[in-house]
Structure formats: structure tokens, C-alpha cells
Amino acid sequence: MKRRSFLRSCGVVAVAPLFVRSDVLGSAATPGANQRIVLAIIGMGQRGNQMLQNIPPAGRVAAICDADQRKTAATMREHKAEWAVFQDYRKLIERKDLDAVIVATCDHHHVLAAMLACQAGKDVYVEKPLSLYIREGRALVTTARKYGRVVQTGTQQRTMEMNRFACEFVRGGGIGKVRVVECVNFKGPLAYPAEGLPAEPIPDGLDWDLWQGPAPARPFNRRLFAHWTDKVGGWWGQWRDYSNGQLTGLGSHAFDMVQYALGMDETGPVELWPIEEGPAARLRFRYANGVEVRLSFPDEEPYRGPRLGGVFVGSEAKMEINRNKFTTNPPDFIKHPPDPALARQWEGEGWICRGHVQNWFDCIMSREKPTADVEIGHRTATLCQLLVITRQLGRRLRWDPQKEVFVGDDEANKLLDRPRRDGWQLPQLS
After folding, report:
1. How far apart are CA 427 and CA 116, in angstroms?
2. Averaged pLDDT, 369-392
3. Across 341-352, average pLDDT
4. C-alpha distances in angstroms, 315 versus 97, 176, 177, 179, 305?
5. Which helix (H) or strand (E) holds 368?
6. pTM score > 0.85 for this model?
7. How far apart are CA 19 and CA 34, in angstroms?
């Protein structure tokens, strides 16, 4: 049993002797060593390094991990740190001194890393999208509940005060009965080219087999390995075996606001359909209460509409919810809006998600559910993945959100799961 858990369970108040160093005791602003959450970050790409900058004072990083040793080496040099460095997250998770892990890997590793961490008794912050496909997302929820872990999904708008106010306002009937919601029609993933990408030399320090993990084994190519910011003519996020494109990338944020504002955190739509043909077809879906969501704003420049939220059309007013802000039509519809200072604290370099991580830390200590609990993250990811399947099949689908199956559609139900490479299966729950 860890020190914090023991003290909580016994109701003990520890009285420190006079000779204990101040850095161990800490203060409200700078918690001491005995009060801090010891964590590791898995995945040291762009997002992992952003997360590193967003660790509140209550956390202490002890280890980092990436299949590409060049990335961990660069992070260590930048921070002049003495953290433990791992290449395989399965080895990192075996460490007994860790309280928690942040999973900032590519999408196809999210669930396995998070499940293994839960089984090892660690709390988890897993970046969005929570999962790559629906069945593995449910497996993570089951695992988190079985082992009593606090799992936060990295949809930080759930913790932003402006977003919370706006979603609660709509949810509580503030704009009247919601008739329709308008969102961006995000681009989805592509099938990996049948002819494949040409093999290129594997860079020194990269364990390519490890990076591929549960995905199909393919030759290394920088267009597959790259992040979209590398601008090499392709990136892993565009291929279905590794990601679901922006339908789960940006859609995880936008549709999370839809789920929140409509009170659908533990359910989902009952019907989805395309209104045109093609890989970028505009989509619509409907909830059991009759509210229809239309993906109509274009996902290309010049952009229109809120890219990280939606426009909620109510019987009394319209409300547009976007990241860290909202507007209404008529403009003065809300008489007592939140203090603008609540929005400013989320702006600026380095404040991408610190409050969201702090919420996770608070819940690690209290053992309460965080604002973007694993079930919430799973339901939002499921909605995104349902949209991917709808566009892939190109026809109307009926969905049972309680049983999490398509109604009377064997072809669609086969897409709820995906094969995994040998050695990378999801763990069995004991």
C-alpha cells in the first residue's frame, strides 16, 4: 500500500519532526515530496512534451518513454533532467514507484497502455481520442472500473469554465428546447494504400516494430511515421489502422461538447446517416429524444462554424460553443455570464490543459470521477467512430447505445472490433 493510501485509510494525520527538510514538507503552492503524485509520460512527441509543460506543482515526473530514443534524448537534453528513460511502455508500467501515467502515444496504443497501467494499480490520463475502435474503448472502461482507477480523458474543454457554463446552460434548458445542432463535417481516415508505401531505412534509435504495436506490420516509411506538422506528404493520423482522422482528432473535442450539452454523457445516438456519397460525405445523426445533429460546416479553409464545438439552435435562442468561449443570438441573452477572467487563465503558451491535469490530480487524491471520466471519453470516442463507420458503409445505420451494437446489421457490427497483431492483444482481466 502506498503512503498516501495508507494515511487516508487510517485517518492518520502525520506530524513532522523538526528536522524534516522544507522541500519534503512543502507548502500550499509547492507540495512536498511526500504529498506529490509521482508519474510518467508515455509518448514524447509534440503532445507528450506539451503535457510535460502542463504538470501542476502537485506532480513529479519520474520517467518518460518513447519508441523513438531520439525523442526521449531530446527531451532529457532540453530539461536537463534525471528521469528514468524507457523505450517500451510495458516495461515502464512495471515500475512500483509510479502513482500515475500520462498516455500521449499515437492513437493505436492508447487503450493497451492505459489498460496495462490500470492493472498495475496506476491512475491514467489518456489523450484523446480515448480509443481507436469501439470494443477496445469499452474494454478500457471495464478495466478502469474493475481496478478502481481514476482515468481522465484528455478532452480539456470539459474542465474549462466557459465550456462548462455553456454546456450546463444548454443542458438545463437555458435556450429552450434544442431543435438541431450544427457542427463541422470533419475528414475521416483513409485505407492504407493497397500497394503500400516504399520501404525506407529505419532511423537509428527507433524501434519500428514497437511503434507499430497492434497495427499491421509494414515497412518503415517517413510518410507513415511522421506527425502532420512534419509536412512530408503524409502522417500516421490519416491511415485507418492507426487513427480515425480528424473525425476523432478534432471531433473528440467538438462532439464531446454536443454530448455534454445535450445530457448524453452515458449514451449516444440511435441513428446515423450520410446525406451524400463519397469519402467526405456530410453526415447527420439523431438521439432518442429527437435532437438532430448535422455535420455541415466545411472542414477546409475558409473555415466556418465552431471547430471545437457546435451551434445549438433552441426554441428561445441560439448558442455557439467553441473552445473556451461561447456566444448567443441574441447577443445579450445571458444576463449574468461568467467572469471573463475565467477564460484568460486558459490562454497563452503552456496553459493548454494544466487545469484539466489538476482536476485529474484532485480526483486521484479524492478517488472521485474526473470531469472527463473514462466512460464519458468512451462515449464521445464511440460517437466519432460511429460516424467513421457510417461514412465507410455509406448508408443509414441504427445504433443501440445500451448494448453498443448496430441493430440488425451484421456487416456494421463486424466493424466494432479490429484484429490486433500477435503479442499486442488486449490483456485479460483476472
Report:
1. 7
2. 98
3. 84
4. 54, 5, 5, 7, 20
5. none
6. yes
7. 15
Long-range contacts of residues 165-171, Cβ cutoff 8 Å, at least 24 apart: 165/326, 165/337, 165/338, 166/261, 166/319, 166/321, 166/326, 167/257, 167/260, 167/261, 167/321, 169/319, 169/334, 170/261, 170/262, 170/312, 170/314, 170/319, 170/321, 171/260, 171/261, 171/262, 171/263
Confidence (pLDDT) at 68? 98
Give which of 292, 160, 193, 183 is closest to 246, Cα–Cα. Answer: 183
pLDDT for the residue 10: 32
Q: Do the Cβ atoms of 179 and 313 come closer than 8 Å?
A: yes
The x, y and z cell numbers of residue 249, run together, are: 482528432
Strands (E), 140-298: 151-153, 178-184, 271-274, 283-286, 292-297
**Kind and range of the H or E run holding 118:** helix 110-119
3-state secondary structure of 382: helix
User: Which residue type sits at 188?
Assistant: G
- Residue 396, amino acid: R
Q: How far apart are CA 402 and CA 421, in angstroms?
A: 29
C-alpha cell at 284: 447527420
> pLDDT digit string (tens) for 248-292?
999 999 999 999 999 999 999 999 999 999 999 999 999 999 999
Summarised one tens digit per residue, pLDDT across range 144-194 is 999 999 999 999 999 999 999 999 999 999 999 999 999 999 999 999 999
Helix/strand/coil for 410: helix
pLDDT tens by residue, 52-82: 999 999 999 999 999 999 999 999 999 999 9
Do 168 and 257 meet the contact criterion of CB atoms below 8 Å apart? no
Dihedral sign, CA of 91, 119, 81, 202? positive
The dihedrals phi and psi of 154, each to the nearest 5 degrees, come to -80, 40
Instruction: Give, in order, the Cα–Cα distances in Å from 305 to each of 182, 189, 244, 313, 346.
Output: 8, 22, 22, 13, 21
CB 426 within 8 A of CB 112: yes
Q: At what angle do helices 161-171 and 251-261 cross, to 10 degrees?
A: 40
- Find, among 348, 141, 377, 142, the residue nearest to 253 by Cα: 377
